[in-house]
Design a protein that fits this description.
Distance between the termini: 95 Å
Radius of gyration: 25 Å
Helix content: 10-25%
Oligomer: single chain
Low-confidence stretches: none
Structural class: alpha+beta
Number of strands: 8
Largest sheet: 5 strands, mixed
Mean pLDDT: 88
Number of helices: 1
Order of helices and strands: HEEEEEEEE
Strand content: over 45%
Amino acid sequence: MMKNKINYLILLLSAGLIFSSCQDEDEKPVLAAPTMSNIELGLGNNEMAEIGKDFHFEADVVAGDKIEDIQINIRQKTGENYSGPWSFEVVWDEYKGLKNTNIHQHFDIPEDAVEGIYDFVITVNDQNGESVEVVRNLTIYSE
C-alpha cells in the first residue's frame, strides 16, 4: 500500500513537470524595448537648424533584440503659428540587424522648410516589434 502511494506521488510530480515544461516552451521571452541616450540635435547640441544648411544628429541606441530601422520626423507643433505647412521625414535602415550603435548623421534642412519651433521625433523600431520614440524641440530658422 505504501509503495502504491509513493508510485502515485512520483507519477503526479512527473506529470506536473511535463506540463509545466511544455507551457514554458510555448511562451516567448519578453525582450526589452529599445533605448536612446546621449541625443544631440544641431551644432553644439543647440537644438537649432538653419534652412538650407547641414544639420547634425547623434544618439546612442540599444535595441531589445536587433534594430529594424531608425526614423526622424520633423513636424509642426500643435498651437504654434507657421507661415505654411511643412514636415520632413528620413528613415535609416543601414543600422538594421545591429544590437547597439551610435547614430551620427548629417543632412540638409530643405530650402522649402518653414521657420518655427518643431517637434523633432526620433523613433527606433526593433525587429521584435518594439519601438521607442523620443520627442525634442527643434527651432528652424532662416538667416
